[in-house]
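Input record (one chain):
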Amino acid sequence: EVQLVESGGGIVQPGGSLRLSCAASGFPFSTWDMSWVRQVPGKGPERVSAIWIGSDMTWYKDSVKGRFTISRDNSQNMLYLQMSSLKPEDTALYYCARGAVPVDYWGQGTQVTVSS
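The corresponding structure, as predicted from the sequence alone:
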């Protein structure tokens, strides 16, 4: 059974930082591209970042470029999203997802709230 468990969300002031983690299990993690997707209530999900199998190729949504960094540890089956210079518009439920285009499994999400 595919399982993706996110953690690391929280409430942070504008300009602050958070590191999201995703523990993957139930599939050969090192052979899958992975993504972070976020969703705000009332809006559709949007892909924030993706990382390909070899970790040497990454993609970022324009609005997070230079502020977010995606990484993976294939030895630990972990996916990470380091977020800095956070803005109120980054507030969302963040999901770890298997795949890049498309994604097929999501975790339960971790809430990130950026507010003063």
